[in-house]
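Thread title: Can someone regenerate the structure for this chain?

I was given the following input by a collaborator and told the matching structure tokens would be attached. They weren't. Posting the sequence so someone can regenerate them.
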Amino acid sequence: MKKSLFVLAFIMSFVLVPLVMQIHAEEKEAPLEVLITNVDVWDGTSEAVMKGADVLVEGNLIKKVGKSIKADNAQVIDGKGKTLIPGLIEAHAHLSLHGDLFQIRNEYNWMYVGAKSGAEATRMLHRGFTTARDAAGPTNGLRKVIDAGHVDGPRIYSAGPGLTQTGGHFDIRGLNEPNYYFLGVPDSKNWMEWYYMADGVPEVQKAAREIFRKGSSHIKIMAGGGVATVYDPLDGLQFTPEEIRAIVVEAEKVGSYAMAHIYTPEAITIALNAGVKCIDHGMLIDDKTMKLLKEKDAFLVPSLAVGLFTPEELAFAWPTKETKAKGARVIAGMENEVKLAKKHKVKIGFGTDFFGPSREQFAQQSLEFKARAKYFSPLEILKQATSINAAILAMSGPMMNPYLDGPLGVIQEGAYADLLIVDGNPLEDIMLLTDPEKNLLLIMKDGKSYKNTL
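Best answer:
Regenerated them for you:
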């Protein structure tokens, strides 16, 4: 018996001793800090870079920004004179939409959607987007999986289920699918959290409260007709002013805000007067309504990269004759929208609205930089994709914001260590960001490097 125990102890020593030594070595060698040296730093708000600077990261936050920073125990990353900018922020993502709105109704298994959403989140992070505001869909679970470290991806500010009226933009039932209100038949797309359908003030109050109970950071109102749906006309008004105000009040009660999918002047006016703080799309807006948007101090998030394509080329999202016709109207309105936005100096966020069945369609996200270069300077575009979008996210407030350790979209002491090193200066050439695989040399999120080719 003693001999057996001795043999067992002898064998275990070969297993445990190296393991313990390895653990202690890792504890001793693991840097407490990361020091990025020799970079030109654009901080997210300034007009120019700080040349030859260093950035010290401790944990998931930026500890110090300056020159000749000393940190004896830090891992050192030599930036080789490249440009360091904040991680990019996407303000209108759809990480759970992997086809047109009719395909997700009938064709996709729930596990397929979850797995592909995780894969697309990883690819989005590798395009340099360290944060995404998801604009309706079942992404609260995806956020939790990413935050737990099971999947690589951006921080997610999720709207959760989009809030639609019967016959509204996100009412994606087929014509043979009953309305549960009349027949008492459960709608699987509700419990899958694609959308909540509600009519009247009491119903929208209940739906809004449920959306925030799910952990959503803000709420998405389908406040007007849409392109990708067949049954709702683009010029249609959706929800009454009283319904929209009731939704906004529920958001305000938890310190958050409402964003609205919307295109036309009348619908935008109703939403702004009801307290909506972010107008997404808005391509058919007029001068009077843009002036009101400025007066209300709201944000505008257009999606301009779709204008690089014809409606036929976007058939994966606009599959029918009706949706293509509506898409053509929206594309035609983009230039006037941007002209009016610049005239009234409104706050413009960076959003793309790309989704689809293939990874190539999601990858078109990076083309938004090319589309905006027609109207804005590189500095304006970079601010839109960093500090301005961060201000939109901050409207979620301390109760519903899932990321409260520090500010996003900036490089400053105490901010999240979400950082990119670009091979070149995007303040001079914004097109560098249209090819992230080639031009992003370092991608850091939360102090962790997900790509480092330096």
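The chain has 16 helices and 18 strands.
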